[in-house]
Amino acid sequence: MRQVYALVDCNNFYASCERVFDPRLENKPVVVLSNNDGCVIARSNEAKALGVPMGAPFHEFKRLADHDKIAVFSSNYALYGDMSARVMQVLTQFTPAIELYSIDEAFLDLSGFTGRDLTALARDLARAVRKQTGIPVSVGLGSTKVLAKVANRIAKRNPETGGVLDLDALGRHGDAHLAQIDVKDVWGIGRRWSERLHQFGIHTALDLRAADPHLIRRRFNVVVERIVHELRGTSCLPLEQAPPPKKQIMTTRSFGERVTEAEVMREAVSSFAARTAVKLRDQRLRTGALMVFIQTSPFNPTEPSYQNSAVRTLPHASRDTGEIIRAATSALQEIWRPGYRYMKAGVMLLDLSPEDIVQQELFSTPVVRDAAVSLGPNPGPGRQSLLDVLDRLNQRMGRGTLQYAAEGEGEGRAWRMRQEHKSPAYTTRWNDLPVARAGEA
DNA sequence: TCTGGGGTCCTAGGACCC
DNA sequence: TCTGGGGTCCTAGGACCC
What we know:
Elements: E1 5-10, H1 13-20, E2 30-33, E3 40-43, H2 45-49, H3 62-66, E4 71-74, H4 77-92, E5 98-102, E6 105-109, H5 118-133, E7 137-142, H6 145-157, E8 164-166, H7 167-170, H8 173-180, H9 191-199, H10 205-210, H11 213-219, H12 222-231, E9 249-259, H13 262-282, E10 285-296, E11 307-318, H14 321-335, E12 342-354, H15 381-397
Parallel strand pairs: 2-4, 7-8
Antiparallel strand pairs: 1-6, 1-7, 2-3, 5-6, 9-12, 10-11, 10-12
Helix pairs in contact: 4-5, 11-12, 13-14
The structure holds a DNA duplex (18 and 18 nucleotides).
């Protein structure tokens, strides 16, 4: 049986999401900015054609936006996450053998479909996604995941493919394409490794495929060796249908304005801690330890710089926002130094375990507490349902509806992110539902 | 002035154990 | 005078991904 993988990749995903809800943006340059409106993280084809590079600081292109040459959006992850779920839902209609690889990409194992015209199947798939979600996708087919990635890239760059390409169907012809692909654009090869590969005379995907795997193993490592095998059609990277449980969960932010006061920093860190706790409960996990870090700007050499981090181990694995905030602020207290202008902070939850397994302390003294406020390993029903109510309410009414006092109040706090160009949460908030009027669009 | 956030995997080296 | 070797666990750092 021929092994066939498909990589389905949404075209310019964030920009396409914005477009779905505002058809006036069709054929116009659109860019989406990173958190804090810092730099460009997504571009429509028209924006690419205007020469806006990926990762470019936004201020360099602000003039174009001011003159209405480009439509600009702050990132709206509630919208993108929801649109992603809809796209993936369409894909699972075709096969359950699917790996949700990222917010805008999925691998499919199409091996069971041999005998059928796979290119035609891929076109059906792309059409279905477009029709049901409004999002355009490209599909690459190959006998390994790395080859499917390569095929997808070729499909995207060659309009005559119509966004769908089966590398195996190209035969020898495929080599010509591989020779066009810089080795740094092969999935898994970044800037550093491509520089080293160049030193060995390996410049293209075709060169890498021709390299001796043993030699690559010795000069580099197993990761690069596996890529060579994958390029040769030997599958080393299996489809991961069930995602492995998370090993860490973090919330980190650059501040809208520099933070100089301890009280403000405590509020920000509390807020990040609360956010990680919500993510933790979404994943049905508990945390046994957390790390807090704070840092000044690494970009400004004239200012005194400082960065530090501290870890706290919790007495027992917890999923409780209050406990996580307390541990985080305690860690912060240890590393806080006045006199600096802080640019960024973060909270990382480490040592995660499944929600339903609770490691008892070896020498814990039994303490009788009011069941409603117990913070022990088996918090009373009152505490559990408080957390559930908190999560459900915030899910229904929007993030931040109910929160801990320590997080500080108001969107107005200067440390909060700048998001001056944010679109509404069209699909996840009742109040933001798009309205269709006769005569528009 | 401005330059994101959230993850994973692999390796090397030290501590520690028998 | 001689002073092993193998194994595990943990951490830090470097690389990669979207």
